[in-house]
Structures are given as structure tokens and as C-alpha cells.
Amino acid sequence: xxxxxxxxxxxxxxxxxxxxxxxxxxxxxxxxxxxxxxxxxxxxxxxxxxxxxxxxxxxxxxxxxxxxxxxxxxxxxxxxxxxxxxxxxxxxx
Amino acid sequence: xxxxxxxxxxxxxxxxxxxxxxxxxxxxxxxxxxxxxxxxxxxxxxxxxxxxxxxxxxxxxxxxxxxxxxxxxxxxxxxxxxxxxxxxxxxxxxxxxxxxxxxxxxxxxxxxxxxxxxxxxxxxxxxxxxxxxxxxxxxxxxxxxxxxxxxxxxxxxxxxxxxxxxxxxxxxxxxxxxxxxxxxxxxxxxxxxxxxxxxxxxxxxxxxxxxxxxxxxxxxxxxxxxxxxxxxxxxxxxxxxxxxxxxxxxxxxxxxxxxxxxxxxxxxxxxxxxxxxxxxxxxxxxxxxxxxxxxxxxxxxxxxxxxxxxxxxxxxxxxxxxxxxxxxxxxxxxxxxxxxxxxxxxxxxxxxxxxxxxxxxxxxxxxxxxxxxxx
Lengths: 93, 375
Known about the structure:
The structure holds two protein chains of two kinds. Chain A is an alpha+beta fold.
């Protein structure tokens, strides 16, 4: 996987969105696919609004999940964003 | 008790401006006056959402043939559903597209019959390709998802590279190259629609190349004919496990082809709620769980992966809806599929790929290759 640009701003691609906040299970909805979101993955996706840089997302998640090892949080986020990009769920501005 | 369904396929109408030679609509098309009203569809969409459904595919026939389509899209979004439109792209103009997007449409899947106008017209029975190109461009300018769906079969497989080029030019976020499914009319003509093994292998190379080239730009999916597979597909994610399909007249089926199955009574949304139908109807319950499974499926380690394959295919090929899907290498009926493949791969078959077409003379003039499928 190529080195990510930490100053880029991930944004969900048109046709990709979260389901309603009121629904019990939070999902990322896409053409012919739905991904179930856990606490951390939901927190990441909510910040993929074209405004947060990758660096900001990492920092915020490290604060939210302060018990987790910071380097692992960063690696996991970068991996997750990379996979979603390949799935065509998000782009980096 | 079965888990909740994830998707609703809403077959709004059987009306359609195209006449695709591989059309999977049943021979007895639902008459317009029997189509469900928008109010009924709105109720059904609400019931689907409360059942746990996440996505609705508006399809048909051609869903754009329903003047109230925007109302239905709005109703779907009001219920919190992800709304997809599965369409040929006609009849549509930018104003109507804006109305659909304004109503909350999330995604549009656009069918393509080939790489160019003349070739596409052969298979669609009408000139629609130019309109599809226009629609693709309009959708790209709006903030909704776009999928191009190229319908593949032996008669257009020689144009696969051109279709890939076209997809690359348009650059949607997703493109699906999907072989025709052998049900309905396509089943009768399977010997002429099925690709040869050599064609299939070549196509896999082309698609794999495209997947690599387009990684990070376009998600490329390829659905191959399962007659060439070792194990069957988990059809619809399993009978009555993930999907509900509502026909234009309100009958509820586990899949598009299930009306071919004998001794099966389908419930209708006009007399029962979707929830009752999903959980209790005889049709949906018939092939759930494991008790109904024949051997070797009943004790097979794959039974929770592919659920013994497709019931409709078992009926069409082996005349027994409860049999192991004959495409499975472990199926007692596998010989039926092997015979069909032998017929398809026989050298003689390659010589006359146009025989079943109504106008072979018309087909071989104009833009596109004149030579047979394999030279």
C-alpha cells in the first residue's frame, strides 16, 4: 500500500453515505453493498467529510481511544481508509 | 427464526421501451392496470424499512415507465432506505433526472448492451446506445452514484475490450460486466449465449487487466456463467435469506425467476404485510434451513456458503427444484451441465453464431465487426 498523504482530506464518494442516525445499526451504504460500522469505524467515516485531514482524523481517534496504542490507531486508520478508497467508497481531496 | 432481509427489489412494471433478446421478464407480463399504486408501494417501502431492509432497487421492465417514480424515490428516502434505480436510461431527460436526484435518489445503474450503437441495437431491439451515453454524462455531473452494467453473452463477448474502453472513458465509480443469467428466454438459447471455455478464459484476462489498471478509480466486477464453475453461487444470498422481490402486481418472491417453480403459491402485499410474508409464507419457508436439502448438500461443508445453489436452476436443468444445483461438481445432475458445455464448445457451433437472430443480414452491416465470434 502506498504512503498516504496525511494532509489530504478523505471524502465519501457520491452514492456512498451513512444510514440514518435513528437506526440501531449504523451502516455505510453503497451500490449493492452495505458495511456494518463499529464504534471506531463509525468515528472514522463520520470524519470523512472532505474537511478533516487524515492527520486530524488520526489525532482525534487517538484521543477518543486513548487506551489504544497510538501507532496502532494510526496504522489501522490508514489501512481502513486505503481499503475504502479501493472499494470506491471514498476519495482523497 | 430467520434474520431480517437486507434488500428489496421493487419491480415496478413490466413495461419497457427496449426488447432485449435476453430479457429475463416472464413471458406473461403484468398488465399496466394490475400495477400497484404509489400509495401501496409507499406502504410496502415502510414495511420493508421496519423489517430491517437497507436498500431498495427500483427496477422492472423499465422503472422510468412509471410517471410517479420520483414519488416512490421520495417515499423510499422518507423511510430511511438507500434508493437505487436500475434502468436502461430511457425515457429520461435532464429535467427528470434532476427531479429524481431531488427526490433523494442515491444511485443509478445504467445498462449497456454493447460497446457501440449498431451492435447494441441488435440486442436491445432498438437504438438506445447514444441516449445511454448522454445519461451517463448527466449522472456524472450530479452527486449520485453511477454504475455501468454491461450485459455479456457469446454474441457480444468479442467486443469486451471495446466495452472496457468505453467504461474507462466514462469512468464511473463502479462497472459490472455481467454474463446473462440463464433463465426465461435466455435459458432456451443458452447453447448460443454461453461463451466457449476459450472465450471465457480470454475474457478473464481482459477483466483482470482492467481491474488492475482501474484500481482506485473504478470498481470493476465480473459475473461469470456458473455453468463453468466448480461450485454453485449462493443464489440471492440463499433462498429467503437476504432479499425480497415484489412484482408489479404485488406478489412477493424470493427471486426474479421463482415463478417458474411449480406448486408454489406466492403471497401478495395487497392481502398480507411484508413482515408476515417474509417470516411465514410457505414460499419463503420452503427452502430455508437444512432439513429440505438433498444429499450431498445436507452434510456438505459448503452448505452454509452456497445453500445448495439455485432452486430455479435445479428446476430448469434437473426438473427438480429440491435437487442440488446441477452446476455443482458434486451434484448428481452435473452431467446435464457438462452436456450443454460440450455442445457449446464443439467446433461446429462456432461457425454460425448468428443463426437465432431475426435479421442476420442487417446485423452484419454497419459499424462493428462483421466476422463471426471466433475466426
